């Protein structure tokens, strides 16, 4: 057992959890979740055992945007005590594993520090993960205030990380939601209350603060009651930072002013005066501004130790050019397919709840096929489509997406699967 590792909350930004832990049943308060996340971010890919992690509560408050009041420290102290007794219910096939999050907690009054050690039974779910795990940037959840938001986010993120690419969706029965969140039988007994107190606030926070956007929520009825909901999400389009917006308009100075503007952008970024002048004169405003925007974007997803050095390499090879062109191409594709998407989504809205459940089952059965059989089915489906749809479908495949998961194809693809199923049954009889 390693001892005495001091956690820097702003160090490692990546959170990794085994999918069985993502889908486990447990309930943590917001402060308890913050403590767990802070410690999780200290785990590295090479760790084969847990340390006793020391957390600075001052830094935790800074990172999660919490006021450093007396009440915060007392609330954290209480969270430390309750977290020690929090149980996780993990299902692995026929196995049910019950384990506590922590085996040791020490609150050090006066220093604003907490020492925490995970229970050793959690090692298979947090250390040296090779497959079937979910990872995300910790910064995606640091502004959440609802105790259910992180749970919803992780459960959705799990499906994104399973390889659907682009838009993805997950269907939850109401009982599953209650189970995942450990909502008691006496709490939010009516769906209306569950929706307004748990589901909607959580999904709003995900939209407002995380790296994914909820684009659709479908309620599925069984009889007269809401039986399940399907949440469709997509990766949030990274806002293309048009650095040039902040450049004052210059009408008469032409190239000179463009160079001055490029120098200003570079200096604001942290580049030294001499280097900024050299780069601005050599590469020009357009190249400098798009590569600054590209570097800022990359900084959100990868660790960059020398930001100015990284920017210099990007400008030198014009790494931002391909990214900028791809953004423009994506915009054109989206404009081309927008009308078609609306038509298909309109069709989907008309589908009955029973049909929706049947469609979900058909797609799930398709996912269970081998990759070879999936590809064969896709080829047959594609052969029956017009050239315009074929072109869009192939473009999706090229990006690594699964086109049949997209709203614009999903309905027709399910109809195709049903026809193929009928043919199969007919041949067997």
What does this protein structure show overall?
The chain has helices at residues 19-22, 30-40, 57-64, 70-84, 123-126, 149-164, 174-181, 191-209, 255-269, 273-299, 307-317, 319-350, 353-367, 371-383, 387-398, 407-428; strands at residues 2-7, 14-18, 51-56, 87-92, 95-100, 102-108, 113-118, 133-137, 168-173, 212-222, 225-235. It is globular. The protein has four domains: 1-142, Arc Repressor Mutant, subunit A (Orthogonal Bundle); 146-236, Orthogonal Bundle (Arc Repressor Mutant, subunit A), CATH 1.10.10.10; 246-323, no CATH class; 351-428. Strands 1-3-7-6 form a four-stranded mixed β-sheet. A three-stranded antiparallel β-sheet has the order 9-11-10, with helices on both faces. It starts with a strand and ends with a helix. The model is unreliable at 238-254 (pLDDT under 50). The chain is 54% helix and 17% strand. It is α+β, with helices and mostly antiparallel strands. The protein has 16 helices and eleven strands. A hairpin with a 2-residue loop joins strand 4 and strand 5.
As laid out across the biggest beta sheet, the strand order is: 1-3-7-6
Sheet having the most strands: 4 strands, mixed
Number of strands: 11
CATH class of the largest domain: Mainly Alpha
Helical element count? 16
By helix and strand content, what is the structural category? alpha+beta
The mean pLDDT is: 82
Cα-atom radius of gyration? 25 Å
CATH topology of the largest domain: Arc Repressor Mutant, subunit A
Globular, elongated, flat, extended or rod-shaped: what is the shape? globular
Which architecture of the largest domain per CATH?
Orthogonal Bundle
End-to-end distance: 63 Å
SSE pattern, N- to C-terminal: EEHHEHHEEEEHEHEHHEEHHHHHHHH
What's the CATH H-level homologous superfamily of the largest domain? Winged helix-like DNA-binding domain superfamily/Winged helix DNA-binding domain
Please mark out the parts with pLDDT under 50 across 5 or more consecutive residues, or reply none: 238-254
Beta-strand percent range: 15-25%
Number of domains: 4
